[in-house]
Amino acid sequence: MNRYRFVLYRPLQLLPVLVGISIITFVLIRSIPGDPVRVLLGPRSTPSAIERIREQFGLNEPLWVQYLYFVKNLFHGEMGRSILYKVDVLKLIVSRIEPTLVLVGGSVLLALAITIPLATIAARRRGSLADHVIRLVSTAGLGLPAFWLGIMLIIVFSVQLDLFPVSGYGRTFLDKLHHMVLPCLTAALALSAVLTRNLRASLLAELNSDQATAARARGLPENQVFWRHVMPNSLVPTINLLAINIGWLISGTVVLESVFAIPGMGQLLVRGIFTRDYMVVQGVAMCFALATVMVNFLADILTVTADPRVKL
Amino acid sequence: MSDTVLSVRDLTVVVHGDGPPEAIVDGVSFDLKRGEILGLVGESGSGKSVTSRALIRLLPGARLGIAGGSAVLGGRDILALDENSVRAVRGGEIGMIFQNPSSHLDPVMTIGRQIAESIRFHRSVSRGEARRQAIDILRQVGIPDPERRYDAYPHEFSGGMRQRAMIAVALACDPDVLIADEPTTALDVTVQAQILKLLMDLRDTRGVSIIFITHDLGVVSQICDRVAVMYGGRIVEVGDKRDIIGNGRHPYTAGLVACQPAEGHPGERVRTIAGQPPRVGQMPPGCRFHPRCPKADAVCMQTRPPLEASGTAHLVACHHPVLNAQEVAS
Q1: Are B328 and B257 in contact (CB under 8 A)?
Q2: Domain A97-306 classified CATH 2.20.28.90?
């Protein structure tokens, strides 16, 4: 079981990554022209009032002192107070995390539910009409921007067919799911465009592999050869591709939550940037970074589990 | 113990290309007796591997098709079976051992489960019973500590152990016939000798018949009882090992034997047969060996030589067979 030893030390390796990301977001958001205090007080604010608020939030300190405060607070489990909302950033994030988690999780599950059958059909009926259609659609899918796809889905399924709500996030569990179908579908379609092509190629290679021939030669029916030997071997590269794309998906929630007006972390981030709410932007960016890093860590664990040859 | 297990008659495999279908296995006939090791010898592209794949109806490539012939095993013609019945033959009556155990074993499934899988698909036994039988087979092929090795993955085995594991997979359902397609080519010499000994032991203890495909005449002389020499998709000579090695009557067989580097003569140039083996789409008419044959004449270019008896259980397909030792003496 020492193949899993990386689980112990990998998090330590990820620490420098998080430090780097915290510095970059910290400096970037402050280098944008504008000032949260001016946004807060409005155009009629007096210079003395601005100065007072700046002092209150520690914004008149040198940049590196501000950063050290930020890091010190992080170690106490705090991310500072939002200048605009006047509440703790961590509380703000906790209140917004659920829709984003549902969006990311739902998109991944839906993407797999689309990818695996489509790639299976395309690979097992190579050269058939179905294969050509699947390849054409997934190639086209690569070129479509997610926000456009989202708007098209809203027009068709919400406006024309009235099947799903146009936007927002529900109250009850079922209501929430109902609201999340279209946003998840939007992200899932974009993801499966990438994944289907990759999985189809892996499946085709494995269908012609020696080990599949050997499985047929010991009398397994083609279905069993496929599900017991071809698919498990093909999924390993696709898992890794999916992990890479979850990073894309997490940043993509910013766009999707805007298109579908979902009160999640992406929306919080966008508002934070517009109002120069430094603490909120830093907090959300750190969460996104941590999530991306964790997903890749999880993907490593999955890969090691799926392929006994892999050593990390 | 000399009853026939497998009887192949006029097996023909064609490749469908741009032109008319061309036979890459052309009218191959042979008998395999119980407990016999039959060598199928020839250069790359001589059709020996395709012949073996045709016997389990798994031709390598969609453009290949069986165009005729029969292969009777246990009273049934394999070539006439439907897909469901032929699956019972694969891994059931015929076990397949491939050249490269590293690529022919599933890397993400344990060795034991691959054996147990074969058992469970051919016999209705419980999971536990399949495991017990699989461990038993691992022990028979000489894998130490089989209970523990059952749960090992192929990459955790050495090359020789992997080939033993592959033989165990082939033996899982106690087949009548083992087809070993160059099983020792990927192994080093000492391991090769161990695998050959294992195959001979299995023949002795289980009475299994083996079709041993190789291009290595040295291996043939160690393990085989009878030898069929293939050239251009046809059997050109078949007979007892002693009839073939050293006493071959087909010019091709004689050439092959002459090409073997002799032991104890370092520095000697390795001899070769001039020319190239025929390629698919360019099979010569008449005797397919005639462009490379020193004895070829007008007849060889037009008429296919029939496989005719040249002594007891020795057949040769040549218009001008090489004189054998007795004839030279007289």
Answers
A1: no
A2: no
